[in-house]
């Protein structure tokens, strides 16, 4: 059984948002077309409390896009984004969320960031998505959304590790792109066994 996994298509990751992904909004119509063709549609939502430890503003002297060491490893520091209940955390207004059967929220623990739909950045704290997918006999994921080089990439890598077949829809993802991180993300995802597809292939 297949599922479409829509990662973090939220206002703060779209142009004009706090952590904008260039052209992040341009994938929305394609995602809407795709979600109409899947029996199972799932979403993630980045959902941080104010003062979250992944925000540069929570660390004296740090600027966004610098890094800091956390107990679980190196963490990129971000502008404040996707704060719970803010409009920036809302899904893009044109995204059709009606077909979504599950919304996985992540990043809600103050002291740990979470890029992946499966595990937080400590690689240990589970969101529960694996159990949900297994119980619904879903073995294949088609991944779309934002950002290619962070939440999409980590969701794809963890999905593969958890034993799912994972496809990435190349024209339905967009990245932040810090120092070539988008092309590195593609290399990592493909090396790990992800399959690149186009929306055209899926919609024809
Ligand atoms: C994301 C950075 C921080 C993402 C979320 O959705 O890719 N990136 N929080
Ligand atoms: Zn975040």
From TrEMBL:
<dbReference type="Pfam" id="PF00857">
    <property type="entry name" value="Isochorismatase"/>
</dbReference>
<comment type="similarity">
    <text>Belongs to the isochorismatase family.</text>
</comment>
<dbReference type="InterPro" id="IPR052347">
    <property type="entry name" value="Isochorismatase_Nicotinamidase"/>
</dbReference>
<dbReference type="GO" id="GO:0008936">
    <property type="term" value="F:nicotinamidase activity"/>
</dbReference>
<dbReference type="GO" id="GO:0046872">
    <property type="term" value="F:metal ion binding"/>
</dbReference>
<comment type="pathway">
    <text>Cofactor biosynthesis; nicotinate biosynthesis; nicotinate from nicotinamide: step 1/1.</text>
</comment>
<protein>
    <recommendedName>
        <fullName>Nicotinamidase</fullName>
        <ecNumber>3.5.1.19</ecNumber>
    </recommendedName>
</protein>
<keyword id="KW-0662">Pyridine nucleotide biosynthesis</keyword>
<keyword id="KW-0479">Metal-binding</keyword>
<dbReference type="InterPro" id="IPR000868">
    <property type="entry name" value="Isochorismatase-like_dom"/>
</dbReference>
<dbReference type="InterPro" id="IPR036380">
    <property type="entry name" value="Isochorismatase-like_sf"/>
</dbReference>
<dbReference type="GO" id="GO:0019363">
    <property type="term" value="P:pyridine nucleotide biosynthetic process"/>
</dbReference>
<feature type="domain" description="Isochorismatase-like">
    <location>
        <begin position="3"/>
        <end position="199"/>
    </location>
</feature>
<keyword id="KW-0378">Hydrolase</keyword>
């Amino acid at each position: 059984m297949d599922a479409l996994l829509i990662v973090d298509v939220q206002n703060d990751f779209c142009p004009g948002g706090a952590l904008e992904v260039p052209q992040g909004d341009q994938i929305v119509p394609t995602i809407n077309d795709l979600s109409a063709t899947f029996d199972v549609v799932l979403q993630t939502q980045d959902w941080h409390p104010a003062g979250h430890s992944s925000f540069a503003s929570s660390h004296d002297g740090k600027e966004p896009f610098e890094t800091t060491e956390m107990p679980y490893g190196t963490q990129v520091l971000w502008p404040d984004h996707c704060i719970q209940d803010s409009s920036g955390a809302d899904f893009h207004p044109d995204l059709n969320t009606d077909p979504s059967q599950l919304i996985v929220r992540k990043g809600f623990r103050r002291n740990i960031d979470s890029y992946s739909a499966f595990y937080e950045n400590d690689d240990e704290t589970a969101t529960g998505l694996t159990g949900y997918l297994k119980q619904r006999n879903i073995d294949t994921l088609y991944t779309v959304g934002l950002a290619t080089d962070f939440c999409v990439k980590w969701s794809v890598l963890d999905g593969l590790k958890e034993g799912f077949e994972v496809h990435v829809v190349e024209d339905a993802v967009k990245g932040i792109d810090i120092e070539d991180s988008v092309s590195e993300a593609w290399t990592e995802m493909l090396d790990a066994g992800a399959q690149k597809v186009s929306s055209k292939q899926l919609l024809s």
